[in-house]
Predict the structure.
Amino acid sequence: MKTNVKITYALVRSKRKTVALYIRGGAVEVRAPTRMAKRDIDAFVASKEKWITDKLAKAREQAERVKAFSLDYGSAVTYRGRQYPIAARDGARAGFDGERFYMPPNLSPENIKNACAQIYRLLAKRDLADRAYSFAARMGASPRAVKINGAKTRWGSCSAKKYINFSWRLIMAEDAVIDYVVVHELAHLAEMNHSARFWAIVEGVLPDFNERKARLKALQIKLGGEDWEP
């Protein structure tokens, strides 16, 4: 809707007590209390104009990077923090041989991307499970199972039934970062929260976990500009 400020935004009213701003899909959404005056909402949006324009600009840049993302023979992809080339190899199978991601010749860029994603899933199923069970033994933890999913916004999760889940995208991270996510989820088997006790468990295994966590954020930003769907 048009307002008397420079920013166009969608307004959602509810019984909340405070006003909040969100950038979703390149658009501005304002959530405000049911009885908050429209002029006060407009004034709040106007006061955040620079923050909003900066966020919108970054969202547009990210959308352009995602749209331009493409893979072809000779492109490099990341596995456990190291880059490997994509190469054509005679035959119908795709895989990883320790030096390259190989796949049949004459695939389209979209099919190459999908083949890489399938290779990643297989590598994640093997490597992430190995790391999880290795750390579980050290931590005295007993996950019921370790599973791989396609989550885009969560690196890992731990269910109340003691199932540990990891996104296959995590296999792109360097080993030190993978280990942080693994230990984080295993710690939830003892503490299903982010309390001081939870972080004490993580720190007891990985004293430098904060540094590893920051490096994970860098990977998240990188993947934010890559289109790995479907």
In short: Confidence is low (pLDDT under 50) at residues 1-5. Helices lie at 38-47, 49-68, 109-139, 175-187, 196-205, 209-223. The first strand starts at residue 10 and ends at 14. Strands lie at 10-14, 20-24, 27-33, 76-79, 82-88, 95-96, 101-103, 145-149, 156-158, 163-167.
